[in-house]
């Protein structure tokens, strides 16, 4: 099974980092967040990836093209130019890196990799979100429902302190309370080949007509994930994930560190 990762957006809300590189290449714990996402899938035996590139996609290509070298000790013979790789720690990943266009929307990027996916069931997620999700249970849930698409639904924690006020007096104060009960799109989709029939062209936003029409057709199921989930939309999010990593509290890191 293949996992498709959307990695072509501009990442404007994280402009402090994304002026020089695409958001999936922003590092957490010294490695791009896209590698953290790939490790989540790899932990469950999924080692084939399709990365949908766009903005500064050449940086992603160069990183993985030289990944084996980055993850090895080197012996360089300057007289002959020979390079010997020692103590390689590279993962067993097979990665297709596809240029899906600079201005292409999310649905269009998915449509462009149709021929690379083939007719099989495939995974899809965004290149900027991590979770301690059980991929095997997600897949089992998808198969048991027999729908074209499954989205992972999450309930993010509140971002602001909550006040209970009566007669201009604060009765209770709770810093960053649990979410308001609303389930949102957390990525980590499982999709069947028929999903491509719902995508028109490069201008299609996957989260608009395709998902809305799948829902209308009773073809979209929701896997409720109640564990850890976090996007990396802002510098605050990035710093929070980095802090968790440095403290050894990276809940999404289920693999051997």
UniProtKB/TrEMBL annotation:
NCBIfam families: G1P_cyt_trans (TIGR02623). This is Glucose-1-phosphate cytidylyltransferase. It comes from the Bacteria. GO terms for biological process: O antigen biosynthetic process. Residues 2-230 form the Nucleotidyl transferase domain. It comes from Clostridium cavendishii DSM 21758. One of its GO terms (molecular function) is glucose-1-phosphate cytidylyltransferase activity. Coiled coil: none annotated. InterPro entries: G1P_cyt_trans, G1P_cyt_trans-like, NTP_transferase_dom, Nucleotide-diphossugar_trans. The lineage of its organism: Bacteria, Bacillati, Bacillota, Clostridia, Eubacteriales. Transmembrane segments: none annotated. Keywords: Nucleotidyltransferase, Transferase. Pfam families: NTP_transferase.
């Amino acid at each position: 099974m293949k996992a498709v990762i959307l990695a072509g957006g501009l990442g404007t809300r994280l402009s402090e980092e994304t002026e020089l590189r695409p958001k999936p290449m922003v590092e957490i714990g010294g490695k791009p967040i896209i590698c953290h996402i790939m490790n989540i899938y790899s932990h469950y035996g999924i080692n084939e990836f399709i990365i949908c590139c766009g903005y500064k996609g050449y940086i992603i290509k160069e990183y993985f093209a030289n990944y084996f070298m980055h993850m090895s000790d080197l012996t360089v013979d300057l007289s002959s130019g020979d390079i010997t790789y020692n103590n390689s720690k590279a993962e067993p990943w097979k990665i297709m890196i596809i240029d899906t266009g600079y201005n292409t929307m999310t649905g269009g990027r998915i449509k462009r990799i149709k021929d690379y996916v083939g007719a099989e069931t495939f995974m899809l997620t965004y290149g900027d979100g991590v979770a301690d999700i059980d991929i095997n249970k997600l897949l089992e849930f998808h198969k048991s429902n027999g729908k074209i698409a499954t989205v992972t639904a999450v309930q993010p924690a509140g971002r602001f302190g909550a006040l209970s006020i009566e007669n201009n007096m604060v009765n209770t104060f709770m810093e960053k309370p649990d979410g308001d009960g609303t389930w949102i799109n957390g990525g980590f989709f499982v999709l069947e080949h028929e999903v491509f029939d719902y995508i028109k062209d490069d201008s299609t936003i996957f989260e608009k007509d395709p998902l809305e029409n799948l829902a209308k057709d009773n073809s979209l199921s929701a896997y409720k994930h109640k564990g850890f989930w976090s996007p990396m939309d802002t510098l605050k999010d990035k710093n929070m994930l980095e802090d968790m990593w440095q403290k050894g509290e990276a809940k999404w890191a289920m693999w051997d560190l």
